[in-house]
Amino acid sequence: MSITQENTLAQPVGITLERYIMRKQAEFPYATGELSQLLRDLALAGKIVHREVNRAGLSDITGGMGTQNVQGENQQKLDMEAHIRFVRALKNGRETCAILSEEEAEIIHTDNDSGNYVVAMDPLDGSSNIDVNVSIGTLFSIYRRVTPVGTKASEADFLQGGRQQVAAGYILYGSSTMFVYTTGHGVVGFTYEQSLGEFFLSHPNIQIPKQGKIFSCNEGYWFDYPESVRTFLMNCKRREYSGRYIGSLVADYHRNLFNGGIYMYPPTSKNPNGKLRLLYECYPLAMLIEQAGGQAVVSATEAVLDIVPTELHQRTPLFIGSPDMVQELVASGQAVLAAV
């Protein structure tokens, strides 16, 4: 068989997430492999949730639980399914000493006090959309603990601030499942190949366009938005920008990351300090967007990653996306909103 025939018959399938992580680990002479294993644990849980999402209509895991989480939101069955899967994967991986989940009010200790990392996560964002087959996602944020190894993790390990994240990312369950993350050296994306059971590198250097033509927000709150936000949105409409809003944070963010645009969740009278959770929604997305060349702010003077957290389930407004669009909002004074 000639080389040409061999190349035609057996095209390379690409770099797996496992191999990519191992190669990147080799670039850091003092790496111990713990963070690499932690990322693999998250990817494993993501594969399991992918399976559950894709068979949701065939099994009894859609609909509500009849209970509420710490946020006062109705829990979906798939919320708890994802929560259990990710917590179990992180416990079994033995790299994490504690977990903060949207679904639990208190810190979850993993019974591994020698672990060097803590993880804050939203196991399944947008899960109310699963019943109508809309894209949903998982968000995660990783910190190196600040409490002594061998002791119980505390709130201090999670309240370090967004600039102290060592890695962050999301898993999108849509027409394809993607694992997107950063360790502070750019943003990479992997697409799940179900027949092989592997994530393959599909987007080696994700950069958000400097300018976009998409604005994403819930215009149902139009009359409750600050006047400055309505003015900005009117300018977008005059330019015939596209309004695109799914109501699933990861999906809305993912579209704008690739196509260019701005996602906004301003404060309202019902949620004067914003609705999105700082530690496991806004921090990871802000780290990703900055690494991809974009911006994330809560006001004209404060970036998301500069907020000093005081509560585990703290909320915040969010304006995130293409830098030129965010800067237009900031420069005109239209992002000077309620204090966080």
Automatic annotation (TrEMBL):
Enzyme Commission numbers on file: 3.1.3.11
Residue numbers binding Mg(2+) 2: 122, 125, 281
Residues at which Mg(2+) 1 binds: 102, 122, 124
Cofactor binding note: Binds 2 magnesium ions per subunit.
Superkingdom classification of source: Bacteria
Keywords: Carbohydrate metabolism, Cytoplasm, Hydrolase, Magnesium, Metal-binding
Limits of the Fructose-1-6-bisphosphatase class 1 C-terminal domain: 208-330
Pfam family, one: FBPase_C
GO MF terms, alphabetically ordered: fructose 1,6-bisphosphate 1-phosphatase activity; magnesium ion binding
Cofactor(s), by name: Mg(2+)
Subunit structure: Homotetramer.
NCBIfam families, per the entry: PRK09293.1-1 (NF006778)
Annotated family: Belongs to the FBPase class 1 family.
Protein's name according to its UniProt entry: Fructose-1,6-bisphosphatase class 1
Organism this protein belongs to: Hymenobacter telluris
Gene name linked to the record: fbp
